[in-house]
Amino acid sequence: MEKELLKTVYSPEAFRKHGYTLIDELTGHLERTLSGKAARVINWNGPEDEKAYWLEFLEKGDASRFFPEVLNHTTHVHHPRYIGHQVCPPAPLASLAGLVSSMLNNGMAVYEMGMAPSAIERIVTDLLCKRIGYDTQSCGILTSGGTLANLTALLAARKAKVSHDVWNKGHKDRLAVLVSEEAHYCVDRAAKIMGLGEEGIIKIPVTKGFALDTSLLETYYINAKQKGLEVFAIVGSAPSTATGVYDDLEVLGNFSKKHDLWFHVDGAHGGAAIFSKKYRSTVNGIDMADSVVIDGHKMMLMPTITTALLFKEGIHSHATFSQKAEYLLQHSEDEDWYNLAKRTFECTKTMMSLQWYLLLKTYGETLFDQNVTTLYDLGSSFGASIQKDPQLELAVIPMSNIVCFRYVSPSISDVLLNEINLNIRQQLLEEGTFYIVQTRLRGVQYLRTTIMNPFTSLNDLKELRNLVKEKGAAMLSS
Ligand SMILES: Cc1ncc(COP(=O)(O)O)c(C=O)c1O
Predict the structure, then answer these.
(1) Residue 134 covered by a domain
(2) The pTM is what?
(3) What is the mean pLDDT of residues 406-422?
(4) Rounded to the nearest whole angstrom, what is the distance from the C-alpha of residue 57 to the centroid of ligand 1?
(5) Which terminus of the chain is more solvent-facing, meaning fewer CB atoms within 10 Å of its CB: N or C?
(6) pLDDT at 107
(7) Are residues 130 and 177 in the same domain?
(8) 385 with 278, same domain?
(9) From CA 227, how far away is CA 199, in angstroms rounded?
């Protein structure tokens, strides 16, 4: 068999050439987007047109134009007017660490396939445990996303709290978890994957301010028990996705202690507040959690996917996927921390610890404090400016960098306002001047923003407010 093509593919010289060109292109992209000089955050194209474009490119396109065209056809998260979903503009150095992971491709399942990243993973997760406030029994893992981390945490919870061995023997009892009705949908999905069914995910209503209503906990718990359900865990959101409101973790922690439940904190978005001196109080009580999820790719300046799952008692991390009974593992905890696939859902995963470690080593924890504090401050200022504006309505006073609001006008019905706000968001998307998203809360359509870029200015936010009002007024008069 000829190997000429393979030799071309692996040519170090070709890599150098493509690499330098790409770095130059990405540098230009960063300059244009960060400065806001790029006119658009997104060059909107409908899905069918986009598919047709790439089919044609496959046939006739110039391969050397591939990366520039990808840049043109994606959402620019480094643009200060990207204020949409909860993925961060990654720190360029962290993206380079991702490139190293892609090239070295150590699979991380066993220690030999990733010596440095396995050791580094332990160091990084130990540091996160410390900042949560855990003692020395704690430990953690890095895993592929908050969704998988929440599932892993609930599997650990079931192993630890349910009286019979579901992992080996299957379901016998009707099991359940308590969770806010505003929790991320992946918690619901995790419970369903675990076979808990609809009745096994008990959704506690939220307060007017969208936090889990802790005054209802006892009633919902007793009702579940009376129905014959074995409740084994409670999940707190820090914060919830739609509104960015934190649940009262202290109350949830005390409740879980009282009833011997596993307490899991989904801090995928805002667990990073453990690093903010100013906003640390939003996660008061997080140290009571048996497990905590924090996404590096949301508030911690890292590219996808860089999720940490931390356990108060490290033994539970070792027991999650173990075939053996928990007590047999008690003495092996420290022996085998470096063979990571024993504790992760994945077999192969990326060397995601590199991103965490490199940012810590280069910039220190102050970077995380600065980022979270800047973004939450912006959320608060944006919220205050909306509150003062009679043509806009805030869904709830922001506790984080997630701000939901809508265009309003006196004596216009909610049905029409819903339609107007939907159209405002669609117009913004298609024009590409801002990228924001949307959410529906208690039947009301809101524009949803997450300020992820520390260089988004108050002026950007003012222009967004003005544009929303302009569009709203134009739609009303047309
Ligand atoms: C609170 C919360 N939990 C979990 C997730 C899912 O995390 P991932 O997207 O990393 O799977 C999200 C994503 O937005 C979230 O906001």
Answers:
(1) yes
(2) 0.96
(3) 96
(4) 33
(5) N
(6) 94
(7) yes
(8) no
(9) 10
